[in-house]
Design a protein that fits this description.
Keywords: Exonuclease, Hydrolase, Ligase, Nuclease. Its EC number is 3.1.-.-. It is built from 8 helices and 19 strands. By secondary structure, the chain is of the alpha/beta class.
């Protein structure tokens, strides 16, 4: 009896699709690569030919230079070798996609990273029934249940207004999280300029070029201290406690990440205001997604594989872990 999905081979450096002779999110350069989204642990430079959404290709070009890219819009179909392939939204960041593959009467969906929460900067996740669902498990433990995003933004704004002589400095990943925070603030009625670290400028401008209106942004560097009092400043997580941040007016240090659920992580980064805002599905959303898709098998990657695999077995769903390597903690 032929094993389900026998035409897909997981290797430590990525997933090889044999009848297409292509790799999905490979950790090293390959002749043919299918890329789910632009984060550095999924998209790397140096591939021969890259298939991705137009937005992901734009992100890769901004980060790695010109790509030999083949843009695939959501819903379009392409054929590689003997495999029919389409891209559907993953809801993770701008341009993020699930890769849907059909071959030999089987359908496999590689989700990449995904979330189920509403995000004004990207298309929402699309539930796609399949035989095999390849799922991340970044927050694959029952302890991870993300709060309402709007309530976390309200906490940020309340703290800002309660200490107007200070500023709030928020650590946020440069791709996806920073832009989402800005849009969430705009959605809560915050119309003031948002100040940003220079390392965020290029990707913020790219989002605007791709049709995401972020409102007025100003560089924090070189701005007088007095102007920054009572303002929100975004920076990469690594800049929260470095020399750059010491020039700011008594910053309230915040960080936006699903990992802020873990108090020890907040303490390690000297975070005064932990904001639990994630671009990944939490435990309930992971299990909800599997229920809705109803696959015959779930293959689990980069995260807390054991707990989600156990949950699948309890619900009579075959599951396995792929043990891929090379995935970074992106500060979510």
């Amino acid at each position: 009896m032929v094993r389900l999905g026998s035409w897909i081979e997981p290797f430590p450096e990525g997933i090889y699709v044999r009848p297409a002779d292509a790799w999905i999110d490979p950790a090293m350069p390959k002749p043919y690569a299918l890329i789910t989204h632009g984060h550095g642990d999924h998209a790397r430079g140096g591939h021969g030919t890259v298939w991705a959404t137009p937005e992901t290709l734009a992100i890769m070009e901004a980060r790695y230079g010109e790509q030999n890219g083949r843009p695939v819009n959501y819903g379009d179909n392409v054929r590689l070798g003997m495999v029919d392939i389409s891209f559907v939204p993953a809801g993770h960041v701008l341009g993020s996609a699930q890769i849907v593959m059909e071959y030999g009467g089987e359908r496999v969906v590689v989700s990449g990273d995904y979330k189920r929460r509403e995000d004004p900067t990207c298309e929402p996740f699309v539930v796609t029934p399949c035989d095999i669902f390849i799922s991340e498990a970044t927050f694959g433990l029952p302890v991870f249940r993300h709060p309402d995003t709007g309530s976390e933004i309200d906490r940020l704004l309340h703290r800002l207004r309660s200490e107007p002589e200070r500023c709030v400095l928020v650590g946020a990943y440069a791709l996806g999280k920073a832009q989402r925070l800005i849009m969430e603030l705009r959605g809560r009625g915050y119309e003031e300029p948002v100040y940003i670290h220079g390392a965020l400028e290029r990707l913020c401008r790219l989002y605007e070029e791709q049709g995401v209106p972020l409102g007025e942004l100003r560089l924090a560097t070189g701005t007088p201290k007095a102007e920054l009092q009572g303002k929100i400043i975004l920076c990469p997580p690594g800049a929260l406690n470095d020399r750059w941040s010491r020039r700011l007016p008594d910053p309230i240090t915040a960080m936006a990440s699903g990992w802020m659920r873990i108090r020890q992580r907040a303490r390690q980064r000297n975070v005064e205001l932990p904001l639990i805002i994630s671009d990944h599905a939490d435990w309930d959303e992971l299990t909800q997604t599997i229920r809705e898709i109803a696959p015959k098998e779930v293959w689990i990657t980069h995260g807390r594989e054991d707990a989600l695999m156990h949950w699948c077995h309890l619900h009579q769903i075959k599951a396995r872990e792929l043990n891929l390597v090379g995935y970074e903690d992106e500060d979510d």
